[in-house]
Specification:
The complex is a heterodimer of chains A (513) and B (417). Chain A has 513 residues and is of the alpha/beta class. Chain A contains 15 helices and 22 strands. Chain A is globular and about 90 Å long. Helices cover 53% and strands 13% of the residues of chain B. The radius of gyration of chain B is 22 Å and the shape is globular. Classes of the chains: A alpha/beta (513), B alpha/beta (417). Chains A and B meet through α15 of A and α1 and α11 of B.
Amino acid sequence: MKIRLILLTAILVISLCPSPAFAAGKSADQGNVLIVSEDRSSGALRSKDLQFISNLVMAHGEKVTLLGIDQLTRQKLKNFDRIIYLANGYADRRQKRILYDGIEQQRSAFLQIGGPLPKAFRQRMGLRLEDQQASIGRLELTHKGVAQMVSLKRCRLIAAGNGSLTGRFTHPDGPIRYTGILNKGQRLGYLSETDSRSIQSAIVSELLAKWLNKEAQQGKIYLTLTNITPFSDFRKLTRLADELHDQGIPYLVIAQPVTSNLNSAAMKRYAAMLNYLQSRNGTLFIGAPFVYGVTHEDDQLLEKLMSVFVRRLTQQQIAPLGFAAENYWLFDKDYQRESLKAFHSLIILPNQENLMWRNRSSSSLVMGAIIPSMSLQQVIRSSWKQKELEHSSVSLALTINVDKLLSRPSEKAFEKLLYQSNLSFDDYRQTVLRFRTYGQIIRSDGWTISINGQPINQTRTEQPSPLREQKKEKKSLGSPHKMLILIFSIILMLFILFIIIGRTYYKNKYKRE
Amino acid sequence: MSLSNLLLIVSTICIWLLLCINIVLIISGYIYYLRTEKKRPELKLDHLPFVSVLVPAHNEAIVIAQTVNALLDFDYPPEKYEIIVINDNSSDNSSEILRVLQEQHKDRQLTVINTDAKNGGKGKSNALNIGLKESKGSYIAVYDADNTPEKEALYSLVSELVANLRLGAVIGKFRTRNRRVNLLTKFINVETLSHQWMSQAGRWQLFKLCTIPGTNFMIRRALLEKIGGWDVHALAEDTELSFRVYMNGYLIKFQPKAVTWEQEPETLAVWFKQRTRWVKGNIYVITKNLPLIINKSAKKIRFDILYYVAIYFLLVLSLVTSDSLFLLNLSGYMHTSVAGIGAILWILAILIFITGTYITVTTEKDEMTIENAAIIALMYVSYCQMWLIVAVYGLCTYFIDKLLKHEVKWYKTERFQ
């Protein structure tokens, strides 16, 4: 009896006290993926790779923490169960040792992209790397038949390994090689570096999905019209919306916010246009406003401006279902707090040249849905890319800048390309979501969208009324400007004529003296 | 529309309006130049009237001898003009120099009036009124004590005034004697040329309007006496006098052949004080004559009143407003959303300023140079902005003086060796 009691107590104590592993797991930020890179500067040669990888991880619903290898400590490593190492620059031995030793000790899931891999890791994957001479061959994703002819420069590829191999490279003069591997437990992975960026990115995507155990997910593709502003050509937009609507193609619209003169006629026309787009199968996302150097003392200015704009939209029965911002916004506490947190979904746009940080953070914000973006043109011309997207485990926004459709023929050409492609676009309105944005509760319930509980009318067919007026106003605003330029140019020429006359007078009068 | 947007729109319109007026004046001024370039004043010697040349001088020992010698050297019959130097309560050795000059030229009609603190030292207007009382001529010419008029200057003024009975006064052209000394005097040189050719000549060509400058002008004695001489309260006695001449139905004409060379400020401090006096003087004239805008008999000078109002109030306030809005926008304290004037228009406007001003320098010997083109371009970013500071300062101090009832003080421009 006594023994039984002791045993029972022991079992109870063991079951109640967390094991060291469990304790570590608790303290760790679960679902927090650490991406260690050798160069994080925005102008770095391979900063786009870092953006691309972080976008993918965030799109899988994971929180991302970005750290430079020089910032790494054992203590910091302990907080992460999954670590990606992007060897995109230079790191000294000591820094690498901190990383590899830490991973070995805590047995973290680890994926290395590029660079040499320590022997211990190679052994765990049964990995054999071999030098590959420069050659032309076929690089393909293992199971999907997505392939591209590539010209590889001298690099190190995978000759053999225990686990699932991907990125199969075949060429007539040599054996089959691979660019990626994931060990049997899918916790250890390696991707060798090649200079074939496009298809390699697809391989990264595939490998990451497996490594994160998200390969079963099926991503969606959204056609996304960008750069919609009050100055856009509304006639063109109406035509495009009608065309897409008639063809049954749903799309997202990234509309730039207006932060002042919200009662102006221009804003009314803009709201009417957005309303029309919404009624023609469009789903509205608000684009991040242009931010300049931080000179304003009002810390909440962005929040205030966004709030005013969102309120104005909702008054017009326009329901923004998401936000669109550059990648770095996700790593800035102020942008997170003042704008991103007010939305459920986010389309990540590529970082532009100048990043206007306000309060930089190493960790990203986890949102309801994070959708990386890619240029539609880039996809539409590549059949393998389209095929890859069919199997993609992350959703993707394929963007088209409407400003680039300069003429009627270019619009037509774009539409033709769109219909000829094998892409099938999804409707974001089908996403079930509910979120509070700047005091307004927006809910999408399959097909019905409501603001503060009131369903909005999505079947309005009236055209954004004053298109003719807009044209007329453009004329009346543009003409005086042109007229003044003309007048001043004539005056300038007259003055130059005066100077020429003056010079003749001057010569006759003074030069003789 | 927000207040900031409204202010921006109004100020932009005002600035561009003034720019357009300036363009019109440049074109008219240049037409006047082309019209008068080959004309020579003609008046028979026996028709030449007796002229009194008044020279107010307060502590002008540095320059007075040169001025008097130049005046004595006029191509004008010596028996037909007198020179009256009003040595206005000078504390330097002006009186000694003038006595020596008198002794040297005993055969000439050179009178020196020495005033003391009791009856003199109250500014240029007061000194001129004293000189007027002592003068005999039916035509009164005025020269500042730092002037070196060219020989034919007096003859040019007289022939113009005698030939046209509608003229109450004739003004000549003044040039910068020390224009090569430094950048400031180079700026002033271009400014004075531009002011005369573009502003004076343009206004004469368009509206038969001119403003009397402080020096190198001639006025009918009868008219001067009728209007009660110079206003002793005016700091810009010349502008003030011009308005009264017009109100009496006379015209003032610009005669570019009458040339005098004067010394201009060589330091910023002196320049600032001189220009502040001008600004305050002109504001006095504006406020004094503003009611004339609605006076039917003042039809002739409405443009001038409005022009001065536009320059000293509208332009200054517009520039201050637009500059302030620009700074507030930049610092994030205010937000304007009105699209500004396009960059092309601004560039055109600057080019018009440069070419328009350069047209002036083609009228004068040794001035049509690349250096002057560069000076003009530099003027736009420096000297013109300095003018704004002076104008704002003058405007503020004028109204502060009025409010606190400060006594009007005449600042005498410092001379340089």
